[in-house]
Amino acid sequence: MASLDIFAHDLAGWARALAAGDVRASDLTETCLERIARHDGTLHVFTTLTADAARVAASDADRRRTKGETLGPLDGIPVALKDNIDLAGTPASAGMASRAHIVSTDDAVVTARLRAAGAVILGKVNMHEAALGATNENPLYGRTYNPHRASHTPGGSSGGSGAAVAAGFCLAALGTDTLGSVRVPAAYCGVAGIKGTRGLISPRGVVPLSWTFDHVGPLARSTRDLGLLLDVLAGFDPACAESTAAPSAEPYDPGAPASLAGIRLGRLDGLAEAVVDLEVVVGFNRAAEIIAGLGAEIVPVTFDGYDFGRLRRAGLIISEVEGAVVHAADLAERPEQLSDELQAMLGYGAALPAVRLVRAQRDIAAARERIMATFADLDAIVMPTTPQTAFDFSDPVPVNQADLTAIANLTDRPAVSVPMGFASNGLPMGLQVLGRAFGEAAILRIARAYELAADHDMRPLHLS
Fold it and tell me: How far apart are CA 288 and CA 266, in angstroms?
């Protein structure tokens, strides 16, 4: 079989090709495995590759299709999982040397839902250690590099997930997002990624960092792909304390008209306060013009009294405290197996006075009230995903890279990142759409309309 052009279609397009009999799941899977073999020695994306199991799953999907027993649009679609998501029979390290000996005995809920939908799971991909960081500088598995520039970070903590999709190693990947860890890699790698409303997707079977802020979210090449994935992943899990029974909401319609007439959007002003790079501001202004041209009413908004850096640090404090509880045994008994950075962050959380934790919680509660008020007469708010493009691993880590993404986690709202084209340095930028609680269909509609109108080609051209 000649290798397919994996970038010829997004996930939804390949699903249609499978349904029409134009391609087999086995061909798609082999194409992904060939790309992994060709490029992963440079990018360092996969921590565990389950090629044999993937080939069996793809053959099973092909047999179901010939019998007319297809399980849905994900049947036969190659996907990957972040290393902190349980995949039975594979290491459950969460990117940590102290956990490298642990093997998952069961699938996570999201893994099981993907399997039930017929998805072909290729394996697990790299992440920032313990999901506490945003560069994917991992002491156990090494750095994962950005497919658009192999000296640069893909973002984190789901950097392997973003890089896997951008490189064409798979058609979708799951990540986790605590303060932006799905959307930052999506922006840096030029793909789409969504964090749903808290509790929409069960995190059971995922190694936690923060019970308060953790979300599982998909990354893919288009926002319509994200809608197909959410259809499978979302759903109440009565065995999970963090799961929420979602109210009935408008279903996502990938065929919805591109017009945004009747939509009222807030356009975030005050980007200078978040120290957004000028080129990202220019790209955002262009994106806002495109959205306005689709018929949306756009009004300027500011989050009065919202201190981007201080609130992001408040979220980080809670994550460090909860992470210290999750990894207490490793911190106490195996500290030498944790990086100095992770020891410092978890140690800080473990020693934090209760009064500072409560102050952080109250600051976030007050910010949530302010942003709820801002949404009173808006359908969604648009803003850049990150204040900058991906940076070289040798450069200092920007302290503000999650300032704009953390808002969604702190306020329990859904947010999607969609590619916003390339900056003059040749690296991707991301546009973020922040919505109302359980308003995933609405923000995906807005992002899809922009995506179609902008028509950015985000493939990494130097990867053959």
Answer: 10
